[in-house]
Write a structure and sequence with these properties.
Number of strands: 22
Strand content: 15-25%
CATH architecture of the largest domain: Alpha-Beta Barrel
CATH superfamily of the largest domain: Glycosidases
Distance between the termini: 113 Å
Structural class: alpha/beta
Number of helices: 13
CATH class of the largest domain: Alpha Beta
């Protein structure tokens, strides 16, 4: 026995007091995880470490366990039931989708225009061409440049077909000049339109002289009988076999003298166009001379409104230079040009000498850009109630911006209410403004209240709006 400094006796350590060094397992219960007590001399304070084992977890059935149920009748029937239920539900959804598609209301087919209707046309006088490039001479390239500057894609060459021989170029023109122009136009991607054969052929025309096809003509006349299907077949072959080769694919039927002949020629143009459609050809009827309608604003206004009431597409032959000599003051000519470009129909512009071209190409280009808009091409057109010397209408097409057009052709201010027209909202953005001195303002034009669009004397405006259908 030893004695420490305090006089406390420390006897020998007995084995009973010593901590157990070997791990001892002490079960708590039969279901509890195993608990293991382990004594250690490190750290020297004799702390005990307790390790508790993890409880067993369920890890699913093994393959051997599953195979016990593979052939069990209950599970076999359940699997087949679920398999059939899945495919039956899938087929039912497919059938329902098809039924919904079939029974859903159809959207109206989007209206489109033929190429001969889309762009305005510029008439090019082969015998008096325009020196667009200021190079002192007129070349076929001038035609291409003029079309680009005006924003048009179709040129009109008057009376190209020889009335004595429908397969030849009219002898009033130089054939080489015509061929060069046609070649340049084709290379530039421009469409070329000319006049169809005239109603009445000259007496020396071979078709009339040989008498081999008397049914081609009306009895005792030299007038072509457009009711004759053989004549239409021959004319279609003539166009596709000869004039397609020249690069000419558009043709304007001449204006009939009588209403009955007009219906006949319109139907003939439809038949010919259908025949020539595969080759990109078009024969159209509806040529109208605008200059005869410019004696007064009221006559011109009535002329435009009648064109809207008609289902036929109109082709407006219009020479602004002639209009200047007809209308007073001359500022009204620009208002006529504006209203023609935005109304339903295709303008055919003539009278482009060098001076007029330079002064008006930016104006015409602006109007050509509007003609590319969907609502201007195929939208509904409705005229607003206005004074006699004011013309105003709206072009509206659902799903695309609409346009309100107004021209004041009187020497006093005017106001127009467009909101009575279906689809026109209360406000729109000004897109083009034409003042009395022919200045075109295209930037920062502001907006207009469409229930009261104000116009000064001889002023025109185009307002874009979002339809409120």
């Amino acid at each position: 026995m030893t004695e420490d400094k305090k006089g406390v006796s420390n006897g020998p350590a007995s084995s009973e007091m010593a901590p157990q060094e070997d791990g001892t397992k002490v079960p708590l219960t039969n279901d509890d995880p195993e608990v293991k007590f382990t004594s250690t001399n490190n750290p020297p304070n004799g702390d005990a470490k307790i390790d508790i084992g993890t409880a067993p977890t369920f890890t699913g059935l093994s393959k051997e366990d599953l195979m016990k149920y593979a052939d069990d009748p209950f599970w076999v029937r359940l699997r087949w039931f679920l398999f059939i239920l899945f495919w039956a539900g899938w087929l039912l959804m497919l059938i329902l989708a098809i039924v919904i598609i079939i029974q859903a209301p159809r959207c109206a087919a989007k209206e489109t225009l033929e190429w001969v209707q889309e762009s305005a046309m510029v008439q090019y006088d082969i015998n008096a061409p325009v020196d667009v490039n200021n190079n002192g001479e007129e070349t076929p390239e001038d035609l291409i440049q003029m079309a680009k500057d005006l924003g048009v894609t179709t040129v009109y060459l008057k009376d190209l077909i020889n009335p004595l021989d429908f397969t030849e170029i009219n002898p009033t023109y130089n054939a080489d000049d015509v061929n060069n122009i046609l070649k340049e136009a084709t290379n530039a991607g421009l469409h070329v339109v000319t006049d169809f054969v005239d109603n009445e052929v000259p007496e020396s025309n071979p078709w009339y002289q040989n008498g081999s096809n008397p049914d081609f003509f009306k009895p005792n006349t030299r007038e072509l009988n457009y009711a004759n299907t053989d004549l239409l077949t021959k004319l279609a072959g003539l166009v596709s076999g000869t004039w397609y080769g020249y690069g000419v694919k558009g043709f304007l039927m001449p204006t009939a003298v009588s209403e009955g002949d007009g219906v006949l020629m319109k139907n003939a143009s439809i038949t010919l166009s259908e025949t020539l459609k595969t080759g990109g050809g078009a024969v159209v009827y509806g040529e109208t001379e605008v200059s005869t309608m410019l004696n007064s604003v009221s006559v011109y206004k009535q002329f435009l409104m009648e064109q809207v009431d008609e289902n036929d597409w109109a082709y407006f032959k219009y020479n602004p230079k002639i209009a200047e000599s007809t209308m007073s003051p001359k500022e009204m000519v620009h208002l006529v040009t504006l209203s023609l470009f935005m109304v339903r129909g295709t303008p055919i512009l003539d009278g482009f000498n060098k001076e007029y071209f330079d002064q008006n190409k930016a104006f015409i280009k602006s109007l050509s850009d509007f003609r590319g808009k969907e609502s201007v091409q195929v939208g509904n057109i409705t005229f607003a109630e206005t004074a006699d010397d004011v013309i105003a209408y709206a072009r509206v097409e659902k799903g695309t911006p609409g346009y309100a057009v107004a021209v004041n052709m009187q020497d006093a201010p005017a106001a127009v209410n467009f909101t009575s027209i279906e689809g026109v909202p209360g406000k729109g953005e000004n897109e083009l403004k034409l003042t009395a001195n022919a200045t075109i303002l295209q930037n920062d034009l502001g907006s207009s209240q469409l229930d009261s669009v104000s116009l000064e004397a001889y002023e025109g405006i185009v307002v874009q709006f979002v339809p409120n259908f």
